[in-house]
Every structure is written in structure tokens, then in C-alpha cells.
Amino acid sequence: MKEPIPSTTGNLDCASVQRRTMAVLVIMQIVGTVGVGVAPSVGILLASEVTQNEAWAGLARTASTLGAALFGLPLGNLAAQFGRRFALSSGWWAAALGSAMLVVAAQFSLVVPLFVGLLLIGAGSAVSLQARFAATDLAEPAHKGRALSLVVWVGMIGSVLGPNLGVPGGFIGERTGLTVYAGAFLIAAVCLAVAGLIVFALLRPDPLVTLQRASGIEARKPESMGARIRKVMQELSTNRPARYAVIAIITAQVVMVAIMTMTPVHMQHMGDSITVIGFTISLHVAGMYALAPLVGYLNDKFGTRPTIAFGIGILVASLSIGAAWPEETGGVITSLILLGVGWSFINVAGSALFSRVVSEETRASSQGGVDALSNLFGATAAFAAGPLLILSSFSILSLIAIVVLLPLAWLTLVRR
Fold this sequence. Notes:
This protein is an all-alpha fold. It has one domain (about 10-215, about 225-415): Growth Hormone, Chain: A (Up-down Bundle), CATH 1.20.1250. It is about 85% helix and about 0% strand.
């Protein structure tokens, strides 16, 4: 299954493969993230409608994030064993299957296909995240932040469109008899399947395989999941910069997912329409991705800690606005935009640092493990956020998120 690479693995060949890799990843991200972007808005509202129970709805809302966590490490292991092309295409097609199941769940109000579909569509999130690491495989060390941030940035295009698929979903529904939610997930399924086809057909030669050959790393024998996890944990136990990067990525994910997941529910309770909710999530996603190239440049120029520190400041501002004006639509929208921007600063800087300091031996598995951990913590935070919102308020939820930022702030600003 290993991809053939040029007979010479010098800098010229690696640079050529990197340019082709970036072009394929950019196209793949734009198409695939349209399908992934439907989950944070339409998927959350569908969960509430189908389950008609806040406890079950809360679990359903976390299902796509949990799916991203469950797929993160297996996809990383697939990349380590067979290359990026096989891992990324498999993830997109799993997500496409999940989106197709959600068409059925939405049309007939079925709970089991709802949960399974949301879990599978989470594979798309895992692939979208791992694509940023694929961009750094052959990038020059001084340019890893920029390469990573470009792939993050182009994901904005699809991710902004995804939350608004309810509008074309309604158009399809009028002509096919599908519900608005079923029509939205039908569009998503097509986009996810096409993204898988793009990367499977065009990501040749494979960037990770090229890197391994250029580094003199022999093709690995198949290893069990447990063996790979042990290697990843050993890497983190001895690699302090990698641990700091992991803490930063996880913290940003927990804060962002907890607030973002509950915002559609909160806004629905405020009386906002699905159009306003979708627009709000689109602006939030734009905040996550729009400034990514700038963040990558600042990270490469000034370093990881200043970039993460700035991101922490933006998140505190976002959460403070959410706590102060929780019943104002304008305040919630502003808070969500800044939430995305703060996440971008911390995630891009932390991911670039991790890609620089992790060893080549555990590179793909460790990257998959980081994404799995961040999504697992994010799913836990999203699930906990539901009861917290019911028992308290959106303001209290925002204040709790500020507290979650304190350990990362201490590691960044105090401990070196």
C-alpha cells in the first residue's frame, strides 16, 4: 500500500511533493468541510428535535465530537502504516456514510441512526484536523506554521457554508419531499464522498511516505493499537515541549466546544431563528479559520508562547462578553466570533509546535493521538455543558470556561 516516490529524495523532490500536497489538501479541505460544518448547527438542532429529551439531546450533541475523538488515533495509525492518502480518504468516506444515515434519521425521526450518523460524521472532523499535520510533513521547519495555517484557513470556506445548509436543504426538500434537515445532510454526504475521492485519487506521492524515505526510515511492520499508544505515551512522558503543546490544544478545544455546542440551544431558547443561528455559527467558524495564515506567520516570527498568550487574552475577552450580555443576540455573536479567533491562535501555535518537536518515529500516531485527546476532552466538555446551562445560565458557563483557561495561562506566562 505504500506509495511510490521519486528515486531521489533530495530537497528538490521533497519541495515538489510538498507543492502538490498543499494543492490537493486545499481542494480537499474546501469540499470536505462543507459536509463537516453541518454538524455544529443543523446536527445540534436535529438532535433536539428527534430525541425530544434534553438529556438524550445533550448526548446526541456530543456524538460528532466524540466520533472525532474515536477516529483520531485509528486514522493516525492508518497514516503511520499506509500513508496519509489511505487514512484521509477512509475518514472522509466514513463521514459520508454517517451523513447518509442522518438523512434517514432526519426524515423518519429515528434515534439510533441519529447517534450512529453523528458519530461517523465526526470522522470528517478528525480528517480535517489531521490534514493540517499532513501539510507540515515536508514543510521547512521555519515554515511549518504557515503551511499548517493555510490548510486550516481554507477549511473556513466549507465550514462557513456548512452551518447554512439548512437553506439549500429546504430548497431540495420542496422538490423531493425530504425535510429541511434531511436535505442538508444529503448535500453534506455528497461533499464528504467527493472529498474522499479527491484525496485518494490525487495525493500521490504520499507526503508522509516521502518524508519517511527521505529520513531513512524503513517501512514499518504492522503494530497493534496498544503498541502504538504506548509509544505515543512514552513520547509525551519525555518530551516537555510536546506536553505543553498538547495541553494548549486540549484547553482551547474544551473551551471552544463547550461554548459553541450550547450556543445554538441558548439562541433557540432566546427565540432566534435557524437562519440567525446558522449565521452565528458561520461567523464563529470564520473566526476560527479566517486569520489562520496571519497566526501562522506570527507564530513563525515571534514564537509559540507569545502567540498562545495572545490567544488566551482573546478567549478571556470572548467569554467575558458572553457572561456580561448573554441575552443579547449581538453580544452572543460577538462572543462567538472572538471564541473562534482565540481558538485559532492557540490551536495553530500548539499544533505547529507539536509538529516540530515530535519524533519522526511516532509522528503520525502521536498527531492522531493529540486530535483524539482534544476531541475526547471536547466531547466531555460539550456533554457537561448541557446540564450546566440548564442548572445555571449562559453567563455561568462562560465564567467556568475562563477558569479552565487558568492552568494554560500559568504554564504560558509564569512557568517556562
